[in-house]
């Protein structure tokens, strides 16, 4: 593996090279997920880096639970083959707008299909990932599962209204993450499971809503920050909702 290309400010040339950390899985190679996988590859702390999505082999599609189970079995085989544990899971799937419609500005725009699809991709799919992938994390030693959420999923922080389906589905995801973090701590006291808000990032998901005044970052910059924050997580952050700078967000 090549040494990290993005050295954290605190690291000096005399420091030891980063300790090998086991395999990493990134689910959802969209704008942010692909950049996170690239950043992990460049950083060289984890290996192998395994990417899974609707266009990978094996395929992982939330519409087919079998594809999630098969992908988890494949990851387990890859880790056994490489002789390393799975130590990092990043779930970067999500849905805001598309064939099912646009985010609702008013309750008059609510549609069952849009609500169902948003819950399917933003909460039910990640819940099935918990079911099939969290058991792959080791029962001893540090390991992390990071589920990309969104600040608009915060109930306490909701001051603007609108975006009913996305907000509600991310709030549901946050509750699923909190619940899984408690179960995971019973399996491994050093494990950490968090919901992470990546900030506003220039991807297909955010493109129609990027406007002046928003701090829109590139997916590469966001990935650097997400990987940096992820590398600092320990069990004291288990069950937290944090942003890309590691700041805790209100539920
Ligand atoms: N971008 C932002 O400004 C922003 C802000 C706050 C939170 N977030 C969150 O960050 C995460 C990543 O967002 P992004 O900006 O990278 O979005 P993106 O580029 O649209 O990527 C979304 C990913 O989700 C996958 N996906 C969608 N439906 C799926 C399904 N049924 N089964 C499996 N995978 C599915 C997509 O797969 P395909 O490639 O096959 O379509 C894609 O890989 C999401 O959770 C999002 O809510 C993003």
Keywords, separated by commas or semicolons:
about 250 residues, alpha/beta, 6 strands, Rossmann fold
Query: Total helix count?
Result: 5
Main beta sheet strand tally, sense and closure: 6 strands, parallel
- How much of the sequence is in beta strands? 5-15%
Spatially, the strands of the biggest sheet line up as 2-1-3-4-5-6
Give the tally of structural domains.
1
Per CATH, which architecture?
A: 3-Layer(aba) Sandwich
Ligands and ions found:
NADP nicotinamide-adenine-dinucleotide phosphate
Percent range for helical residues?
25-40%
Rounded to an integer in angstroms, the radius of gyration calculated over CA atoms is 18 Å
Shape: globular
| CATH hierarchy, class | Alpha Beta
State the end-to-end CA separation. 38 Å
CATH topology label: Rossmann fold
| CATH homologous superfamily classification | NAD(P)-binding Rossmann-like Domain
Poorly predicted parts: 1-17
Q: Say how many strands there are.
A: 6
Q: Average pLDDT across residues? A: 92
Describe this structure in words.
- The structure is a single chain.
- This protein has 251 residues and is an alpha/beta fold.
- The chain has helices at residues 31-43, 65-82, 112-133, 164-187, 219-232; strands at residues 23-27, 49-52, 86-91, 143-148, 191-197, 241-243.
- The protein has one domain (23-243): 3-Layer(aba) Sandwich (Rossmann fold).
- It contains five helices and six strands; from the N terminus they run βαβαβαβαβαβ.
- A six-stranded parallel β-sheet has the order 2-1-3-4-5-6, sandwiched between helices.
- β1, α1 (31-43) and β2 (49-52) form a beta-alpha-beta unit.
- Mean pLDDT is 92; it is low at 1-17.
């Amino acid at each position: 593996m090549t040494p990290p290309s993005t050295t954290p400010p605190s690291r000096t040339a005399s420091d030891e090279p980063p300790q090998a950390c086991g395999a990493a899985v990134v689910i959802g190679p969209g704008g942010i997920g692909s950049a996170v996988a690239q950043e992990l590859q460049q950083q060289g702390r984890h290996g192998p880096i395994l990417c899974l999505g609707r266009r990978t082999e094996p395929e992982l599609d939330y519409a087919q639970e079998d594809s999630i189970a098969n992908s988890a079995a494949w990851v387990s085989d890859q880790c056994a083959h490489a002789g390393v544990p799975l130590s990092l899971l990043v779930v970067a799937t999500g849905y805001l707008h598309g064939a099912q419609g646009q985010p609702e500005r008013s309750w008059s725009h609510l549609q069952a299909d849009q609500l169902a699809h948003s819950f399917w991709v933003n909460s039910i799919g990640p819940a099935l990932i918990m079911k099939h992938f969290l058991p792959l994390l080791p029962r001893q030693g540090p390991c992390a599962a990071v589920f990309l959420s969104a600040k608009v999923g915060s109930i306490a922080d909701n001051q603007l209204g609108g975006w009913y389906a996305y907000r509600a589905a991310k709030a549901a995801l946050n509750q699923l993450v909190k619940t899984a973090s408690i179960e995971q701590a019973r399996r491994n006291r050093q494990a950490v499971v968090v919901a992470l808000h990546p900030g506003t990032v220039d991807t297909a998901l955010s493109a129609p809503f990027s406007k002046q005044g928003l701090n829109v970052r590139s997916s590469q910059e966001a990935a650097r920050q997400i990987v940096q924050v992820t590398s600092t997580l320990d069990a004291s952050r288990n069950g937290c909702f944090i942003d890309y700078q590691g700041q805790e967000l209100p539920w």
